[in-house]
Amino acid sequence: MTEKIFDRKQKLTRLIQFGVEVSQIADLDLLLEKVLTEARRMLNADAGSIYIRDGENLKFSYSQNDTMQEKLGKDKKLIYTTFSVPIDNNSIAGFVANNGKTVNIPDAYKISKALPFHFDSSFDQKVGYKTTSMLTIPMKNNRGEIIGVLQLINAHDQHNKVVPFKDDDEPIVQHFALYAANAIERAQMTRMTIMRMISMAELRDPKETGPHVNRVAAYAVEIYEAYAKKKGIAQDKIDSHRDALRLAAMLHDVGKVAISDLILKKPGRFNDEEYELMKLHTIHGAFLFNDARSEFDEYSAEVALNHHERWDGNGYPGHVDINTAKPLKGFAEKNGKARGKKGEEIPLFGRIVALADVYDALSCRRVYKEAWDEEKVINLIKEECGKHFDPEIVDVFFDIIDVIHSISQRYPDDH
Ligand code: C2E
Ligand code: SIN
Ligand code: SIN
Ligand code: SIN
Ligand code: FE
Ligand code: FE
Q: How many CB atoms lie within 10 A of CB 374?
């Protein structure tokens, strides 16, 4: 860590800036990342985690670790597994959520036996890290409800030596946690509202839809980020598209709203006629966002319309007018259908969601098909590289396959 230790005035300035910045972020994942990065920077902490409350449990939701990140290499994402701890006095995080109190531990391996909680060293052992100092703070919203816990690990001094967290840092981090809690709560509401909209509009198996929608969106965002980095696009530019892409990817199939349940829920395979009707979900979806007012509308229309195009030009709906579903002038083929979009005629986010959607559809059970094994799915993606999928996007997908797996673990199907 090369950054110098912030003095108090700088900390306050950062805090105010942080308040302004986070009030503009709607996306939960991006927000967790910002919150933790900023909290760690303020206290010069090597690592940290965020736990989000989920009923009577705390769900380990986000983590950073500079030491492990350095070992891994700058461009790779740190993979962490999610787990839950009960909100009770046995774990540190559980205790903090249970009592609403900050706990400042100088050495996790020397916690007094008189205290109710203990440190779980299995994480350290698994990854080869040494946790020493730990500052664990409850995140309370404006109503005083605990929405999660922020845990900072291994404060560093100017010489990068691990030191305890200072007591007089606690108030500033608590204030910080308040901002963070409110922003996180807002982002959670946004995501919940979207999920409700999707399941209401659908009136069909929400168990299939919820996790699928979250996974496809998370895959798409990660693929985009890795792709954009490879192309040398600046991080702040990437971040500015992430919110809108996630939302658009969540809504890729909203057009299914207009498709009859008889077709949508058919337990077996489609006949040709049924399939032709189903294909219209792309155009219906795009039509919903037709009068684009924001970046969100624009990307949502783009993804809905283009997520079933194929790189080789054999996808659907092709070059159509979304108001009439008819081929655009000059794009009608002999059979009356529109010519498929091909290669980079297909907008980037359409190409990305195409891969994310098929990977997920194949990996999971659907009313009309069983789940495939991972190996079979991977083989199909390799086989379709340059046919169904943009080869550059397939490359990126395999670069980040560990991240992809951690996402499918994070959003399991709930049946
Ligand atoms: P979805 O279930 O989200 O599937 C998305 C895409 O994943 C499919 O787009 C297809 O490209 C790929 N995919 C899914 N299952 C298979 C499979 O068994 N083999 C292969 N090679 N690819 C597969 P597609 O085909 O355009 O379908 C769009 C949507 O239409 C599907 O979304 C699903 O909701 C529905 N659908 C497609 N075929 C059938 C069917 O035979 N029966 C029923 N009930 N629904 C179907
Ligand atoms: C730091 O902890 O000093 C750096 C925080 C970051 O940007 O990752
Ligand atoms: C806890 O806060 O007790 C759980 C996480 C950890 O031990 O690192
Ligand atoms: C949706 O209709 O928005 C998602 C459902 C699906 O992709 O199966
Ligand atoms: Fe679709
Ligand atoms: Fe889908």
A: 14
CB within 8 A of 388, min separation 6: which ones? Answer: 310, 311, 312, 315, 354, 358
Mean pLDDT by 10 residues, the chain (415 residues): 58 72 76 92 95 94 93 83 91 97 96 94 91 97 92 95 93 87 86 69 56 92 96 89 87 85 86 95 88 80 97 98 94 95 98 98 88 97 98 98 93 77
Count CB-CB contacts under 10 A for residue 41: 15
Cα of 103 to ligand 2 centre, how many Å? 22
Query: Residue 2's pLDDT is what?
Result: 40
Residue 129 zone, left/alpha/beta (φ > 0; ψ -120 to 50; rest) = beta
What's the gap in Å between 357 CA and the centre of ligand 6?
Answer: 5
Give the per-residue pLDDT at 67. 93
Give nearest CA residue, ligand 2 atom 2. Answer: 41
- The CA 7 to ligand 4 mean position distance, Å, reads 50
Helix, strand, coil in percent for the chain, rounding step 5:
50, 15, 35
Question: Which of 92, 123, 152 to probe ligand 3 with, by most ligand atoms within 8 A of CB?
Answer: 92
Write the DSSP symbol of residue 319. S
Indicate which ligand has the atom closest to the C-alpha of 34. Answer: 2
239-269 core/surface letters (b: 16 or more CB in 10 A; e: else): eebbbbbbbbbbbbbbbbbebeeeebeeeee
- To the nearest 10°, report the CA torsion of 198, 201, 205, 207: 20
Contact between 11 and 42 under an 8 Å Cβ cutoff? The reply is yes
Ligand 4 site residues, Cβ closer than 6 angstroms: 198, 202, 209, 212-213, 253-254, 256
- The angle formed by the CA atoms of residues 312, 314 and 316, to the nearest 5 degrees, is 125
Q: Residue 111 and residue 118: Cα distance in Å, rounded?
A: 7
By the 10 Å C-beta count (0-12 exposed, 13-18 middle, 19+ buried), 21 is classed as middle
Residue 91 bridge partners (DSSP): 118
Give the domains, in start order, of the chain with CATH numbers.
Answer: 8-186 (3.30.450.40), 205-410 (1.10.3210.10)
